[in-house]
Amino acid sequence: MIERGTSRPEEGGADRARPSGEAPARRRGGTPAPKAPVRVLLVEDSEDDADLTLCGLRRGGLALEYERVDTVDGLREALARGAWDVVLSDYGMPRFNALEAFAVVQAGAHDLPFIIVSGTMGEDTAVEAMRVGVHDYIVKGHRARLVLSYADVPRVEANAARLGQVFLNLLINAAQAIDEGRADRNEIRVSTSLDAAGRVVTEVRDTGHGMPPEVMARVFDPFFTTKPVGVGTGLGLSICDRIVCSFGGEIEVSSVPGEGTVFRVLLPRAVTRPAAAHPPSALPAPMHHGRVLVVDDEPAIGVAIRRALRHAYDVRVATRAAEALRWVTAGERFDVVFCDLMMPERTGMDFYEDLRDVAPELLERVVFVTGGTFTDRTRAFLDALPNPRLDKPFDVRDLRVAILGRLR
Ligand SMILES: Nc1ncnc2c1ncn2[C@@H]1O[C@H](COP(=O)(O)OP(=O)(O)O)[C@@H](O)[C@H]1O
Ligand SMILES: [Mg+2]
Predict the structure, then answer these.
(1) How far does residue 307's CA lie from ligand 1's centre (Å)?
(2) Ligand 1: does its nearest atom lie under 6 Å from the Cβ of 186?
(3) What is the topology classification, in CATH, of domain 287-406?
């Protein structure tokens, strides 16, 4: 039975004849199996992923004959050469993707079952793939069960998008600490509780490879990573730490090599104030109706802000600074101006300078909307101004706080 290609010649058949050192971009199995083997054409750029897929098929008891290709030409040649039973295709590959591969199979009038095997494909893509005729899809690479165990805890005073960033980082780290393929034996558990001091504790616990003390001592250092280039940046935990500190909390970590790791995020509970003294969580009363200008080249941002504010504000949206400037020059006035910094043509910085000439009274009403990364020039520009920043992604509450800060 053919199992592997050149990387494990002792298990291979036809590949034994391959001169060592030849790049195995395409691997072919050839020895006859006792039962008629299933002939699988793999469209996959990664040898490791191909092995995982084949491994799964073998575990299912299939005798296999396979070839791996990762270019359009390779696929065409393999189709012309062999009589295949099924094509299994990765979704996103550097040279092409599953939908293109499917088109090649169809163009050759090969009436073959075509199945996408992917760990990265979203549901939308899967639906689109099925719509064009792909026969099925398989999501690969499960690592662990995710168990959520939430106690009824009080609210904390924090920004939801920022906290989301913290927990996403912790979950990705947990997943990356667990090897693929043994989901039945691994678990990532997220739980909430209260500690003795009344702080809200969110714990992310994994059964991954854990870390030795010398790694644990450095995990919060910026740029400290044990992951290969392209996988780790070493920034995740230092950013988490900064965010949690900014909300008056802290992160604790404990780990046992070979057994797993626990990260605990401790946050002070929100101080409950009388409703009237708690303006940032409530919209100003509708009697404070105001006019809001949004200048952002991403139409979705304007749509989102308008939807969030339309019951209390008149929201005007421009996708180009020049358009907004025309309105202002024509005499329109606004209580708050949300202005994206990075726009083609005239940037947010240009628009701000334009306002200085035509409507200087609006300058203090500008809130800069940013993608969170800055060139040296934009950072210097922002640092020199008192105007607040709203970092994407933001939520409705951030918008309200920004507006209240600008309204007098
Ligand atoms: N859940 C975990 N299990 C084991 N090691 C971890 C875990 N979380 C973080 N680490 C270690 O901490 C290092 C720094 O993590 P992080 O700041 O998120 O950067 P990155 O994930 O980019 O490496 C990781 O490279 C890894 O060695
Ligand atoms: Mg990380």
Answers:
(1) 38
(2) no
(3) Rossmann fold (3.40.50)
Closest ligand by atom to 177 CA:
1
Class of domain 145-267 as given by CATH: alpha beta
Integer-rounded Cα radius of gyration of the chain: 28
Torsion of CA 268, 272, 273, 276, to 10 degrees: 120
The residue extents of the domains of the chain are 9-139, 145-267, 287-406
Q: Which ligand is nearest to the CA of 223?
A: 1
pLDDT value, residue 28: 39
Q: Tell me the CA–centroid distance for residue 251 and ligand 1, in Å.
A: 14
pLDDT for res 307: 81
- Pocket of ligand 1 contains residue 226 by CB under 6 Å: yes
Whether 319 shows a pLDDT value over 80: the answer reads yes
Q: Report whether residue 166 contacts ligand 1, using a CB cutoff of 6 Å.
A: no
CATH number of 9-139: 3.40.50.2300
Q: Residue 61 burial (CB < 10 Å; 0-12/13-18/19+)?
A: exposed
Fold agreement between 145-267 and 287-406: no
- Whether the model pTM is above 0.70: no
